[in-house]
Specification:
By secondary structure, the protein is of the alpha+beta class. Helices cover 24% and strands 25% of the residues. A five-stranded antiparallel β-sheet has the order 5-4-1-7-6, covered by helices on one side. Strands 2-3 form a two-stranded antiparallel sheet.
């Protein structure tokens, strides 16, 4: 299993989803004066919902959220990088597709066959502004390799062939 995960908002390690890293600084929106606040995420709502620390436009956590791959494959996001919440679904999906492509290459090199490949995107809710965002992804693949030297594989091949003898009987002739 391999994948990418959001880091830097105080979460712990989640298997398959990357490694957390601190972002430094405090969490919260900066304010300049009593009425005007700095917009950290342009184009987002400036409305602060009840029970939350800031609006999506002023959210320090969303501005500093970074994603990092936790696998041992050569893919993007080996070092932590920021992705905007709007771009995260497509960027994480593209990253996970790199893992799927690597599985097909690996299977081809080893005379194998990919029998299953799935990608799962996970979401979370920002604790500061309440925005739902893609927090990571997980790719799971299964590759089947042919091993003609294995005696169990030879027996299975013989049993499969014996089960197919006479399987195509046409009673209409």
């Amino acid at each position: 299993m391999s994948g990418i995960g959001a880091i830097g908002f105080g979460g712990g390690y989640v298997p398959g989803f990357g490694y957390p890293m601190g972002i430094g600084g405090g969490i919260g929106a900066s304010s300049v004066g009593a009425e005007s606040k700095i917009t950290l995420n342009p184009g987002e709502s400036v409305e602060k919902r009840p029970g939350l620390r800031s609006s999506p436009a002023e959210c320090e956590t969303c501005k500093n959220r970074k994603y990092q791959d936790g696998s041992d494959e050569m893919v993007s996001f080996k070092s932590a990088a920021h992705i905007s919440p709007e771009a995260a679904p497509s960027r994480v999906r593209a990253h996970e597709q790199e893992h799927v492509s690597n599985a097909f290459k690996k299977a081809e090199e080893g005379d194998g066959k990919v029998i299953q490949a799935s990608v799962k995107l996970t979401t979370a809710v920002c604790p500061e502004c309440g925005r739902t965002y893609v927090s990571g992804g997980l790719t799971t693949t299964q590759i089947m390799y042919k091993n003609e030297d294995n005696p169990y594989q030879k027996n299975r091949k013989g049993a499969d062939a014996a089960g197919l003898v006479g399987a195509n009987f046409d009673a209409g002739v």
